[in-house]
Amino acid sequence: MKKLAALALPLFALSLLPTAARADVVAKAASPDGRITLTISLDNEGRPSYAVQRDGKALIADSRLGFMFTDAPKIERNLTLADTKTDKSDTTWTQPWGEWSSIRDHHNEIRLAFREKSDLQREMDVTFRLFDDGVAFRYTLPDQANLHHANIAEELTQFAFAEGGTAWWKPAFEWNREEYLYNRTPLDAVGTAQTVMTVKLASGTHVALHEAALVDYAGMNLARAQGNTFRAALTPGSGAPKVSRDAGFSTPWRTIAIADDAAGLYMNHMILNLNEPNKLGDVSGWIKPGKFVGVWWNMIKGDWTWARGPKHGATTANVRHYIDFAAANGIPAVLVEGWNVGWDGNWFGNGKDMNFSQPTEDFDADGLAAYAKLKGVTLIGHHETGGSASHYDGQLDSAFQWAADHGERVVKTGYVTDAGQIERVDPDGSQHREWHEGQWMVNHYLRVVQTAAKYKVSIDSHEPVKDTGLRRTYPNWVAREGGRGMEYNAWIGGKNPPEHEANLVFTQILGGPMDFTPGVLSLSGSEGSAIQSTIAKQLALYVVLYSPFVMAADTPENYAKYPGPFQFIKDVPTDWSDTRVLNGEVGDYVTIARKAKGSNDWYLGAIGDEEERSSQVKLDFLDAGRRYTAEIYRDGPGADYRTEARHAIVIEKKAVKKGDALSIDLAPGGGQAIRFVAIGGKTR
């Protein structure tokens, strides 16, 4: 009787479960190497789903597809597969700048046309591309008899992880500036997350969810539906539809990067490959990656101000001082913030007084432009909108004409707001509030980049829309902030913890370059408050956190106190022909080697978290048959971010060659930076 009761309980429990809809596989596809497979199914209610397997093991279980509209029935069920087309591609393309000179695009493609069996007979196409290291898909809504315009309330897209794991994520829909520390939680404890969200599954496989080619659409976030299943959550706009477009368009690509480890995620090129090719043509004459210094850190610390007055930072005298410093140290550019009219008063979240072609009376724009040119230095402009995007829209041509006339090759934009959203004013005068990643703002950011390109000016966006690889299509979109950068280390409360940068490498920066503004060798913020880093780590960040335009964020006076470490900042390039991730774990540590474009020299950066760490790195990335001098900048004896010993650094040289190994020893909060200088020609 006891055995009978034990058997009866699970049978009774099973009888309470709902009857699952039967799903039939209607299409299959595989990656070029065959390791990743895709199945597309329709259940007995005509609902489509997709699933992803790797090496025969489920990664993404059956996940729904479809749309919800504000003014029409959902496209979700009662569908049939009307047509299937397949394609494949294996090409290589070159970047004008980047972490790699050339990128291989090798994928298989399957496009499925789903059609409703109801009277409306609307069609929804879904295109999947399978790479050896991931899967991407996007929808297309053709123009058709019963769908000429789409008012999308939400996508019904799902990502149903087949197993649990650990997730690294930051929250969406909070304070609207994306400047949050990354959470590390079980996968089934994630709230609503912004992409990139990175996951280490229980089996060890690493997955990163993001999107590519975000154009004329709302940014995608991830809302946990239940358990380990997430659904797409589009960023709202000021109206009821989250996306409103005439039919005949494709959505951004939804991307699922897959790797054995964290290092493999970084080496993934899928985001770039899913964007359209360069639309600007040859940009070599006007986009020139490099480093810059700036009238900035003293203002972030509170010693100077953006507004006019006795502490105004952007004065002619101060800027000349920075130009002289840049010229003396081979740094090609100087950023100036607070140079224009509009900073006086309450500009925070209200930039309607900003004028981007009218300098203040204590900033001699013409004279400084001429002086910078004489010194072989260019100025980097700054357009802070204070969240008044429509006001900025009205000045785009005049602003970038002014920038070009004053020799500015790059402009840093800003959209600082309070707890509200971005200001938008329609031609009829009606006012709206928009989220940074809603459809209207997505279009605004691209308008800025396209207008700047007309004047051969590049854009470094702060408080931006996230990076989805559009730098391939518009290579003048050179960098973005969109996360917690160095400025948080200036403030007494809320400094970035030692693990922060090791999180960024495998989360946000998987989307693209970040303007983090490293290099504060004084390790000191407001009122002398300590930055949680060693000097060696500040140097390593120039290699680890990629951006083609990188700031030396500290002041000339502070750099004069650290001439040895400052030499690495002067030497390190910002444009690369090759990149290798040698090791890494999300939020713990990472070691990256990069080869300077147009040179035989290599550079290595390694950073850790709050723990002391050590690893052996083989120098297999070096060119065979060539000798090198390794110029090593490592944490000194007793170095520790928690004490004054954070300033301890050892600088030494060592002869090395391909196949040698180096010990990479990281102090708590530490790092290591190495320049491998090629000696002469190759040896036999």
Question: Could you walk me through the main structural features you see in this protein, from its secondary elements to its overall organization?
Answer:
Residues 296-482 form the Glycosyl-hydrolase 97 catalytic domain. It comes from Sphingobium chungbukense. Residues 30-277 form the Glycosyl-hydrolase 97 N-terminal domain. The chain has a domain at 25-98 and 123-273: Beta-galactosidase, Chain A, domain 5 (Distorted Sandwich). It has 13 helices and 38 strands. The chain is globular and about 75 Å long. The model is unreliable at 1-19 (pLDDT under 50). Helix 5 packs parallel to helix 6 (365-374) and helix 11 (535-544) runs parallel beside helix 13. By secondary structure, the protein is α+β, with helices and mostly antiparallel strands. Strands 6, 7, 8, 9, 12, 13, 15, 16, 20 and 21 form a 10-stranded antiparallel beta sheet that branches. The chain has an 8-stranded antiparallel beta sheet with strand order 1-2-3-4-11-18-17-14, with no helix packed on it. Strand 26 (422-425) and strand 27 form a beta hairpin.
